[in-house]
């Protein structure tokens, strides 16, 4: 699992993708994992609105988990 997310530069993005993958592996539903990851993002970025968090989390999951892409993603400005 670590090698799948090691290319991700942002700590919050790596945390979200890793958490989503691990929650899904233990049988958590897609919606529940998504909500947990949205909460996780907002812990890293309390200034983010719920809509912003949902958008970024869905983009990151789509990019890294659904499409298995390696390139950079849009997102927050943190490292």
TrEMBL record:
<protein>
    <submittedName>
        <fullName>Uncharacterized protein</fullName>
    </submittedName>
</protein>
């Amino acid at each position: 699992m670590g090698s799948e997310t090691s290319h991700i530069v942002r700590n919050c993005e790596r945390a979200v993708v890793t958490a989503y993958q691990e929650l899904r592996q233990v049988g958590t539903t897609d919606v529940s994992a998504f909500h947990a990851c949205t909460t996780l993002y907002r812990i890293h970025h309390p200034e983010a609105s719920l809509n912003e968090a949902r958008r970024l989390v869905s983009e990151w999951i789509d990019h890294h988990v659904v499409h298995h892409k390696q390139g950079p993603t849009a997102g927050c400005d943190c490292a």
